[in-house]
Structures are given as structure tokens and as C-alpha cells.
């Protein structure tokens, strides 16, 4: 029951951070009331399935599946311009998180990585944690990646809400 409440409260806090144009506030509940490694796990799938990860890119109808970063193979960008902008973004630079995502992907291996980034009922967060324990993967890396992705997605949502016609 506490987990359900924490998730609802976290969602409410996230909504308030969007309304108040303060994406950093959304992390308060995420850090204190939820399992950051679980949210990190969810963020992998979200980033894999999402569109362009450049925070200042407005959605383009012509881009169905954006290209993946060739290094981490998770983050997607609609073109080279967006990828370059995201690489050196002042708040959430891809340059800082890319090697950590790549390390996580390599340590998990192709099979576990594919299952972690694609929603399937036969691979749960519990399964993911077991794989991480077996391969001696530090969950702090997942937490860091998840926090970065959550902040990036919140910032992107605020930017798009403000700038879309």
C-alpha cells in the first residue's frame, strides 16, 4: 500500500513541478518515497521507446523512430543537429550520462538489455534485479541513469508545453 501511495504522490509532485515550471522539484518525491532503481528501470524502457531526447526539440510528425546514439544505443535523436545539441546541453548533457548507459548495457549483455528496454510481461523488475546481482552491477549506476532521464523528460515536457503551438 505504501508503494501505491508513493507512486501517486510522486506523480502528483511531478505534475506540480510541471505546472510550476520547476522540473527539479519532481525529484523530491522520487528520491524520498520511491525506489530509485525501479524508476531507473522504467526510464530505460521509456527512453528506448521515446522520440528525440533533445530537450529543446519539438516533436516532428515526419520522424517515426529517431536514430539511436551509436555509443549508448538508448537515447534517440531525430537528426545530427539534435544529437549535437543534446550532447552539450547545459542542464542534462548526454555527454555525462552516455558512458554510464553504455557501461550498464555492456554489463547486462545483449539479451538482458533488450528485455530491460522493451516491455515484456516475462521480464519484470525483480528479474532485472536478479540479473544485476548475478552480474555484480552496482544499482547506483541505474539510479543515476534513471534520475538523469527523469529530469531530462520532465524538462522536455515543460519545454514542449511552453513552445508548442
TrEMBL record:
Keywords: Metal-binding, Zinc, Zinc-finger. It holds the Pfam family zf-MYND. Residues 54-98 form the MYND-type domain. Coiled coil: none annotated. InterPro entries: Znf_MYND. GO terms for molecular function: zinc ion binding. This is MYND-type domain-containing protein. The lineage of its organism: Eukaryota, Fungi, Dikarya, Basidiomycota, Agaricomycotina.
